[in-house]
Amino acid sequence: MPSLSPAIAEIRLAVRTALADLPEGSTVVVALSGGADSLALAAATAFEAPKRGIRVGTLTVDHGLQDGSDEVASRATQTATALGLGALIVRVDVGGEGGPEAAAREARYGVLADAAADVKASAVLLGHTLDDQAETVLLGLARGSGAASLQGMAATRTDDDGLRWVRPLLGVRRATTRAFCAASGIEVWDDPHNTDDRFARVRVRERVLPVLESELGPGIAEALVRTAEQLREDAEAFDEMIHETIEDIVEHAEAGISVSVAALAANPAALRNRIIRLVVDSEFGVSLTRLQTLEVARLVTDWSGQGPIDLPGCSAARAGGRIVFTAR
C-alpha cells in the first residue's frame, strides 16, 4: 500500500488531538472558506470525527465582497458534500464599521455562532495555522497594545454561551495545508485578498516575515508562536491571581464600582494595572489603553488631589480610600 503523505498524517493528528477534548457523540461545525487551510481541516475532520462518533457539518459564509463569491462558496460546499459532510452557505451583509476586515470577521463569527446553536454543536473548528498566529503576534507588536495582543489566538476558547472555538491547526504551517490538499486531490481557492497589500496582514506575510527570516535566520514564525504561548500561560496565571484579589478589594458603588486604594498600592504595578483594566472592562465593557490605565494608577501611586479622569464609558476618581469608577 502507498505510504500516507506526511502532510495528511500531520493534519489528521492535529485534528485527532483537538477532537479528543470534545464529548463523544457531539456535533461540530467547520468554518469552510474554500481555501487550503479550511479544506484541509474539513477533510481531516471528516476522516477523524466518525472514530469518536462526532457529527460534522460545514458552514461557508459568503460575504459578498468579491465578484464570484457565490461560485466560490458553492464549490466549497460541493467539496464538503463529496467528503461526506453536511454543508450550508449563508450570505451576509458586511458593514463598514472598524474596516472591511473587522466587519467581515464580526459578521462571520456571528453566523457561525448562530449555526452552532441551531444544531446544538459543542464546538466550531477554525482553520487558522501557525503562520496566521505568527502574523497576529507581529501585528499586535506593531500596535503596542501589550501582552494581551501578543498572546495571539487561543487554540481553544469557550464563549459565554458555552460554545468552544477550536483551532486545531495552530501548530501547522500553511504550506502543509496546501500539501494536504494536493495529496488529497482537493482543488483549493486562493483568496485575492490574501495578496492585496492594502491589508496590513498581507504586508506582514509578504514583506515583513520574509525579511525577518532572511536577516535573522529561519524559524522566526515558530519563535513568535512560542512567545505567544508563553505569554498566554503567564496571562492565565495573572488572571487567576487577579480574580482572587478582586473578590476582596472591589465593592459596588452607586452607578459604578470602587476599588480599595490600599490594596491597589500593595500590589506590583503589573498586577495593579491589570486589576484596573479588568474592573473597567467587566463593569463597563471598555478596554483601556495603557496611557489611560497609568492615569488611573496615578490616583493610587501619585495622589496630589487631582480631579476625576474621563475614560471611555466611565470616569475614575479618588474618594477617601477608594478609586470609584462611575458610568458616564
From TrEMBL:
Binding of ATP, residues: S33, G34, G35, A36, D37, S38
Its biological purpose: Ligates lysine onto the cytidine present at position 34 of the AUA codon-specific tRNA(Ile) that contains the anticodon CAU, in an ATP-dependent manner. Cytidine is converted to lysidine, thus changing the amino acid specificity of the tRNA from methionine to isoleucine.
InterPro entries: Rossmann-like_a/b/a_fold, TilS/TtcA_N, tRNA_Ile_lys_synt, tRNA_Ile_lys_synt_N, tRNA_Ile_lys_synt_subst-bd
Residue ranges of domain tRNA(Ile)-lysidine/2-thiocytidine synthase N-terminal in the record: 28-206
Annotated EC: 6.3.4.19
Listed SUPFAM superfamilies: Adenine nucleotide alpha hydrolases-like (SSF52402), MesJ substrate recognition domain-like (SSF82829)
Source species, domain of life: Bacteria
Organism: Microbacterium hydrocarbonoxydans
Residue ranges the record marks as coiled coil: 221-248
GO cellular component, one term: cytoplasm
Keywords, ordered alphabetically: ATP-binding, Coiled coil, Cytoplasm, Ligase, Nucleotide-binding, tRNA processing
GO terms under biological process: tRNA modification
EC top class, as a word: ligase
One MF annotation (Gene Ontology) recorded for this entry: tRNA(Ile)-lysidine synthase activity
Catalytic reaction list: cytidine(34) in tRNA(Ile2) + L-lysine + ATP = lysidine(34) in tRNA(Ile2) + AMP + diphosphate + H(+)
Record gene name: tilS
Subcellular location, record wording: Cytoplasm
Protein name, per record: tRNA(Ile)-lysidine synthase
Principal location listed in the UniProt entry: cytoplasm
Recorded domain comment: The N-terminal region contains the highly conserved SGGXDS motif, predicted to be a P-loop motif involved in ATP binding.
Membrane keyword on record: no
Domain tRNA(Ile)-lysidine synthase substrate-binding: 260-323
Similarity remark: Belongs to the tRNA(Ile)-lysidine synthase family.
